[in-house]
Amino acid sequence: MSPTQWDFPVELCCRPMAFVTLTGLDVVYNAVHRAVWDAFCANRRADRVPISFKVLPGDHEYPKCRPKRTSYEWYIPKGILKTGWMNKHLNLVPALVVVFYELDWDEPQWKEKQSECATRVEIVRQSLQGRNTKVAVVLIQKKTPLPPGEDVIASERAAALCNACELSGKSLFVLPHTDHLVGYIIRLENAFYEHAQTYYYTEIRRVKSHKEFLNKTTHQLLFVRHQFKIAFFSELKQDTQNALKNYRTAYNLVHELRAHETNILEIKTMAGFINYKICRLCFQHNTPLDAIAQFRKHIDLCKKRIGSAELSFEHAAWMSKQFQAFGDLFDEAIKLGLTAIQTQNPGFYYQQAAYYAQERKQLTETLCDHEATVIYPSPDPLETQTGVLDFYGQRSWRQGVLSFDLSDPEKEKVGVLAIQLKERSIVHSEIIITLLSNAVAQFKKYKCPRMKSHLMVQMGEEYYYAKDYTKALKLLDYVMCDYRSEGWWTLLTSILTTALKCAYLMAQLKGYITYSLELLGRASTLKDEQKSRIEKNLINVLMNESPEPEPDCDVLAVKTAQKLWADRVSLAGSNVFTIGVQDFVPFVQCKARFHAPSFHVDVPVQFDVYLKADCPHPIRFSKLRVSFNNQEYNQFCVIEEASKAGEVLENLNQEKMCFVPGKTRKYLFKFVAKTEDVGKKIEITSVDLILGHETGRCVVLNWQGGGGDAASSQEALQASRSFKRRPKLPDNEPHWDSIVIQASTMIISRVPNISVHLRHEPPALTNEMYCLVVTVESHEEIQIRDVKLTAGLKPGQDANLTQKTHVTLHGAELCDESQPALLTDVPVGELHPGEQLEKMLYVRCGTVGSRMFLVYVSYLINTTVEGKEIVCKCHKDETVTIETVFPFDVAVKFVSTKFEHLERVCADIPFLLMADILSASPWALTVVSSELQLAPSVTPVDQLESQVDRVVLQTGESASECFCLRCPSVGNVEGGVATGRYIISWKRTSAMGDTPVISTVITLPHVIIENIPLHVNADLPSFGRVRESLPVRYHLQNKTSLVQDVEVSVEPSDAFMFSGLKQIRLRILPGTEQEMLYNFYPLMAGYQQLPSLNINLLRFPSFTNQLLRRFIPTSIFVKLPLAAFEVLNAHVRLVALYWTKLLYNTFLITESLLL
Amino acid sequence: MAVCVAVIAKENYPLYIRSVPTENELKFHYMVHTSLDVVDEKISALGKALVDQRELYLGLLYPTEDHKVYPLMLTRAEEAHKCSGSCIIPTQTSCAIHSTTLGTAFNQGPLTAW
Fold first, then answer.
1. Does residue A687 surpass a pLDDT of 90?
2. Would you say residue B102 has pLDDT above 50?
3. Neighbouring residues of A829: CB distance < 8 A, sequence distance ≥ 6
4. pLDDT tens per residue across span A761-775
5. Distance of residue B34 Cα from the nearest chain A Cα, in angstroms
6. Contact A343/B62, CB-based, under 8 Å?
7. What are the chain A neighbours of B41 within 8 Å (beta carbons)?
8. How far is CA A1062 from the centre of its chain?
């Protein structure tokens, strides 16, 4: 029995192709023949016809054909299919024999040659007697033949040759040995292919013809055999549709056979073959679902047909092979373009094949467990005369026996024993691992990570059984984390148990310790007694002793392992194993928690480390140490079993490092933070718990950060979803789930004990030196030193503000651009307890709007924490938002001498500039002075003295002043001419004497100057009196360089009588002035319309009376006669009061309304 | 016949697995675990639409030789109803494994077997 007994024969798995033999070719010595042969067989592409060629000598002996049976009446078949049959028709019995012969049509010795050729054909025919094999002749010719019909000799001789060889004309070919050899060869092989197809067709007909002679009682096997043969010939004929149909029939027939323990293997073998053919053809026809359906049907039909119980491993092997072969077919189809899916891919079949291979192994272990004394029987019952079986699937010791009764039970027993003993020598693990790794490759491809992991676990276990522990561990280690991360603890425990066995058997210390740690932990589903055993072993290992063997290990392997452990012990030395626990679930849990998210530097930093053991027995650790990002603190956070320092321990009555299972232990640590860590984060980088002693073997359990392991996050999630009430714990023991890891804390500066007050009078006024009084008072109990003040614009505001804000300590002078927006670290010296200091800050804001100002006071103080003296830097800051506003609004306007608003001024004619200063400040302002700086285009009519000197303005009050100006004619200027600047010097009334005065400059508006041809002004008293003469003198000035013709007329008024020229026409020379005198005689009291003066300029029709009205008064106040005045006096005084201010400030009044 | 029932959290860890005591429990754990490959794939392929349409029965998952696995997505409400408030779990999957050898009748209506 070969190890490949269950493999399908090659002839079954290959693609059947028509078999054609070529004779008469000397491919070794004849170059032409060699070239012909090469053209046939070299580089056959898929588009060439499917023929399998073979070169044979002309006198080759083909398998003899048995005499044809004329009747099946007495014939009893001995089996279903002979083992040699497929090979015979693939490789031994040709469909066509081709005789190559070198002969040209013009051969001089034609007769002799023709006869030789005929002899050769005859020899072939003799050898194939009884077969339907076709014979063809190919003449290899040196000359290119003429087109058919043109070569008369050729036609004659061809006919003669056919005759001599008894060939039909269709079987004679000519192969000119010229340039186009491959082309000729392709044509030839196509012709051969046709002949071969005819041959296989005949064969199918021949086999079919037997059918009528068969009967269902004795010839059942023949039905299957014939059907299989028809199908196989159809395949050879490349008729795959019919082949499939016939295989399907054959498959049904094979299951109709009467089955018994004695022939079940033969039936299954044939069923397997036929099933393979069907599936193969279905995949070839691109109907994979049919293939799958057929395979399922096949498995369902055969699964329970185990056969002999003693040989049931054979059934498992057969099943495994069925799945493997189907997997291969499926995979091959995928390579040719078929698409598989996650739930239907070859992996499942390989997996199932592996499953049956495992079953085979188990069955072998139970069935073939013979004593060592049992020897292999001799003579070998599995030997046959020929070395091979006659029929597929039969037993070698009873070939061809059809009876279901065992004629020789003794022989049967020996045969079974031989098979069992052979099976025992098979390396099953190898087969299983190969199948599993095939499956893994598939599942990886089809996105089944968990399936892949599962199979890898199986592979690992198989390696374990095969005693290859290194490979086993490699695979198990690889997948463990997947199960761990998804929280499948049952599965993880199972894997860990195997891994622990491997580690034990190899005496691999680190692995042994790691797996033990996890198997003792809360993720392990082991029972307590198992945990207890593991814990004992672990302690033994740490004490440098050998552990007890793991249960269910191979006895021999355990012996080897014990020796290895003994060696380990004798080698004993310092073995420190550091195990990072974040990737697994150890039996100790750890959580570190700072008491607060931040600590002031002058209080000790405190944190707790909570530890909880989950192992079954109390366990003692030797050391606990905590590491920080700043390693200088590490030294303060160590607890050792041997240490005497008791202050870190809460329960002095207990042993410090002995853990009782399930109890949470809390360790309090404290240390003083370094002052340079103020503002920094202190982080716990790791917590190390040491099991065993550093002098011997010890394990360092290393938690990154503040604790937590591979299961923590999932547990937290579960806890958050759970409504389960937590059990009450005694002695204020904290509930483990409620402890939250806090692995970092901030060190912040000491709380300052000073007060900082700001005193000021908002809002600030633009450009003033705004005073901010800072008062710092120390409430510290000791002297503070190095007090520094940082004050000014708070950083981080609009960048433009920095340009327009300046801070200085000196208020006596105006600060300029060079002053910063923020004064930093101004030393202010020392402060005794209760002492207070005041500092004045001056802020100058160039623009309006709100600004944030920062006042930051820092100082140093010596203090003691935990008996340690430290220098603390404390600081206190205050911010204040200050609004800046304009101190006043200034309105400037131009008016005529009649106080009428002017759009434009007349050249050379005096006008008034009025400036109104309206205080917008909530504080009283003092206008120190004002100044008018005139542009060259404007000239003052008289002195430009300030009229608002030392005027104090309360909120909302305004001060006005008025200047009389004149613009000389400048011609027409677009947009007007500049008039100059108005400068107001001011300060807060409350400001001290040395406070600088601020000058605010206002640029005066432009004026448009226009030229007028004639200017008229009137001289008249400020009032008239009823029935008293009122002399009025009009001055008419010619402003042009022309002589002006002027028409003057005066319209009478009801209120006046008058004397003078009522209507006159006169001439005024350039630059001169004409005077007109009138005497008005008021008739009525009150404000009266004067008789109106009308002037017409003949040269300037545009000069209208309206323009005239701008210069001369149109009315006048007429008083009662003197006697009536006294009555009115009191009333008029009231009006006078109202005008007082204006009167004081105005120096030019052309029209008086007052007394 | 249903041989194993499992309730799986949406993070794919088991909340509850119970199988018939006659067979190897570990085998069913592995079977449920490996079937999550298909559940994951189905859920990610159908995505939100699946939940919205309440198409929670995911169909036959796992064609092994001897068993069939049928998963059902549960939502919060259904779960609360089923578990009588002892725990409420967001969307998760349950699987039922049926022995094909013993009860093919259940293949048509696996949910009734619960």
1. yes
2. no
3. A787, A837
4. 888 999 888 989 999
5. 5
6. yes
7. 342, 447
8. 104
- Residues for chain B: how many in total? 114
Distances in Å between the Cα of A175 and the Cα atoms of A98, A102, A865 are 12, 9, 113
Q: What angle do CA A115, A118, A119 make, to 5 degrees?
A: 90
* DSSP label at residue A391: B
Q: E strands of A846-924, at which residues?
A: 849-865, 868-885, 888-895, 905-906, 911-919
CA of A486 to nearest chain B CA: how many angstroms apart? 5
Is residue A683 scored above 50 in pLDDT? yes
At A86 the three-state DSSP class reads helix
* Number of other residues whose CB lies within 10 A of the CB of residue A999: 15
Burial of A847 (0-12, 13-18, 19+ CB in 10 A): middle
**C-alpha distances in Å from residue B53, one per residue of A893, B8, B43, B46, B108:** 80, 21, 13, 10, 22
User: What is the three-class DSSP state of A1090?
Assistant: coil
Max Cα-Cα span within chain B: 40
pLDDT at A274: 96
> Closest-CA residue in chain A for B89?
A721
Are the Cβ atoms of B36 and A450 closer than 8 angstroms? yes
3-state secondary structure of A1003: strand
Mean pLDDT computed over every residue of chain A: 86
- Residue A175's identity, in one-letter code, is L
Distance CA A660, CA A663 (A): 6
Axis crossing angle, helix A312-335 with helix A409-424, rounded to the nearest 10? 50
- Chain A residues with CB-CB distance to B30 below 8 A: 454, 457, 491
Q: What angle do CA A281, A286, A292 make, to 5 degrees?
A: 70
User: What are the pLDDT digits (tens) for A780-815?
Assistant: 989 999 999 999 999 888 888 888 899 988 887 877
Residue of A nearest to B88 (CA): A721
Q: Write out the residues of chain B at the interface with chain A, using a CB-CB cutoff of 8 A.
A: 11-14, 17, 25-26, 29-30, 33-34, 36-38, 41, 61-65, 85-90
Residues 6+ apart with CB under 8 A from A919: A887, A888, A925, A953, A954, A955, A956, A957, A958
- The contacts of residue A828 (CB under 8 Å, 6+ apart) are A776, A787, A788, A789, A837, A839
Q: State how far the Cα of A183 lies from the Cα of A176, in Å rounded to an integer.
A: 11
DSSP class of residue A769? E
Instruction: Give the minimum alpha-carbon distance from B86 to chain A in angstroms, rounded to a whole number.
Output: 7
Q: DSSP secondary-structure letter at A731?
A: G
A543 φψ region: left (φ > 0), alpha (ψ -120 to 50), beta (else): alpha
pLDDT at A748: 92
- Residues of A whose CB is below 8 A from B65: 299, 303, 352, 355
CB neighbour list of residue A742: distance below 8 Å, 6 or more residues apart: A592, A593, A594, A597, A607, A706
> Minimal CA–CA distance to A416: which of A433, A395, A431, A435?
A395
pLDDT recorded at residue A1146: 44
Nearest to A55 by CA among A39, A69, A67, A66: A39
Contact status, residue A246 vs residue A201, Cβ threshold 8 Å: no
**Dihedral, CA of residue A250, residue A256, residue A262 and residue A264, to nearest 10:** 60
Encode pLDDT of A461-493 as tens digits. Answer: 999 999 999 999 999 999 999 999 888 999 999
A1107 with A1039: CB under 8 angstroms? no
User: At a CB cut-off of 8 Å and minimum separation 6, what does A707 contact?
Assistant: A589, A590, A591, A592, A609, A610, A687, A741, A743
Cα-based angle A316, A321, A322 (whole degrees, multiple of 5): 100
**Is the pLDDT at A1015 greater than 60, yes or no?**
yes
- Residue A576: exposed, middle, or buried by beta-carbon count in 10 A (0-12, 13-18, 19+)? middle
